[in-house]
Design goal:
Layout: H1 2-5, H2 11-17, H3 24-34, H4 47-50, H5 53-66, H6 86-91, H7 95-117
Helix pairs in contact: 3-5
Length: about 140
């Protein structure tokens, strides 16, 4: 994963090297990482990709998480359910739109579960590590 994010290997090479694992953490990180590249063409991550600070920080946390023995304790994977695209609602004469209420409820439940379980900004860890704060004695 680190070599992919540094641009040393392509997305296809990453997929070939990714461990086939039943571990929930490995599978959750694989699911999230898959959203970060185009799986239809071979390419490398470039500086423009790494410029997104939030994504780069998440990649760093994922790499660090994979190096630990910490279990993946989240109630869901990293991707929340999203409503269908508007074109699909129109193409099905609104039938899919009826399901949007159900989808919105699933989204709300997803985020309630995730936020109740840990710090979502720390994913895939449950919490960000505390930074040692030295206090000066007065």
């Amino acid at each position: 994963m680190d070599a992919f994010w540094k641009g040393e290997i392509t997305n296809f090479q990453l997929e070939e090297r990714w461990p086939g694992s039943h571990d929930k953490g490995v599978r959750a990180i694989e699911e999230w990482l898959w959203t970060q590249y185009d799986d239809l063409r071979e390419h490398r991550v470039g500086p423009a990709n790494r410029a997104d600070l939030a994504t780069s920080e998440c990649v760093s946390r994922c790499i660090e998480f994979l190096r630990t023995d910490e279990p993946y304790d989240w109630p869901h994977g990293p991707l929340n359910p999203t409503p269908e695209p508007a074109w699909l609602v129109y193409a099905t004469f609104g039938i899919v739109g009826i399901l949007n209420h159900h989808v919105r409820r699933k989204q709300q439940q997803y985020w309630q579960d995730m936020k109740a379980h840990g710090d979502t900004d720390a994913w895939p860890f449950r919490r960000l590590p505390r930074k040692d704060v030295t206090t000066a004695s007065a």
